[in-house]
Amino acid sequence: MKKQKLSFWEIWNMSFGFLGIQFGFALQGGFMSRIFQTLGAGKEEIPLLWIAAPLTGLIVQPIIGYLSDKTWHPRWGRRRPYFLIGAVLSSLALFFVPHSPTLWVAAGFLWILDASINISMEPFRALVADKLDESQRSYGFVVQTLIIGIGTWVASNLPWLISQLGVSNSAESGVVPMSVKIAFAIGALVFLVSILYTVFTTTEYPPEDMEEFEREKKASKNTFIKDIVANIGSMPLTMKKLGVIQFFSWFAFFTMWSLANPALTEHVFENPAPIEANYDLTMPAQAEAFDIANTAFQESSNLVGSAMGVYGLSSMAFALILVFYTSKRRINRKLVHMGSLILGGIGFLMMNFISPENLKYCFVLIGFAWGSILSMPYAMLSSSVDPKKMGVIMGIFNMFIVIPQIIAALGGINFVSGLLGDAPINAMLVAGFSLIIAGLCNLLITNKSAITYQTNE
């Protein structure tokens, strides 16, 4: 099918739901470890508590991708029903997670939240490839990244902004501050509204041959698992090479999401989370000392979250530049991705000796890597995939995102960072080295149509 070229605003409308998805991911990534620490988790326990997130992605995304490939509704289309279901579930989970009374409840809500976000997110990747001619693929994924950058920056700053408006940023032992609760409630609302905007402003192409589509759909009912396994076994060589890059990229970012708060509050701000067992809260002086230490930790956590939001802002600027460039010209996706990842790695390494005032500059560099991770691999992949299998292939590609996170959560981060010593900041150094390795792995990509869109001119 020859697809018509879409305007910027048509691409913006079809990608706008990612604003809500990124609100969910940014609040989860920036503040879930803070919630865990507030509820009593030690630094060494945090990666394992995060394992729910990649495990649900490993299971959910290939399934949702496969099902959306086989779905067609005359009014709601192929991908949009999954956007909506995921949005409702994600919004409910976002609202309730900061109200968790215990650590195990918070971990359970993280599981529900990540599964729900994945239900919405996977079809968005496939929608770009469904709707856009190949000449606009890089442009489309970059516009998506622009919206993601906006969502990351705003959501990461929400608790800080809310506390500046006078909402309390302190709370009793084991209770999440009100500023965080309100931030998550706002995130829930934005998630639902932005998804609804895309659902009602975007149409989808029907299958080219409806009779053939229905025959394939009926034939696939009894071969669900077999089809997914077959697609895993027959994945293109370019996809496998991109998988190596994704492994090191997402190991780095999972390390940041799970351990940046404990590492930076302790190493950069020198305000680690107080351990309740070290205080006798029945004694007024000890209780006051705990409250002072806990308030300092919560305030430093806000500043860490705000600094992390800068990577969303710089990824937005990075994407904006690429939007203007790719609207008129082709780019070398391989070189763009390699350079961006290496810059991000340098940003992580700088954290070892940066001051609190300059921490944001580390995240500026990390934002270049993030902006590229969200666009270049998908643009390269979509050039080597059967359009009929776009959903399931994008879902399977997610395996290269979640497997490194599972390995990191099961002890990979603690083991590798432990080789450098006991200091919490070592986890950020590991993230830096991992991103640099990911950048260099781009040298493996040799497929010309993946590196830059090829025309017949």
TrEMBL record:
InterPro entries attached to this UniProt entry: MFS, MFS_trans_sf
Alphabetical keyword list: Membrane, Transmembrane, Transmembrane helix, Transport
Gene3D superfamilies recorded: MFS general substrate transporter like domains
Residues passing through the membrane, by range: 12-36, 48-68, 80-97, 103-121, 141-162, 182-200, 242-260, 303-323, 335-355, 361-380, 392-413, 425-445
Annotated localization: Membrane
Protein name: MFS transporter
Organism, as annotated: Urechidicola vernalis
Coiled coil (residue ranges): none
UniProt topology in membrane: Multi-pass membrane protein
Pfam families named in the record: MFS_1
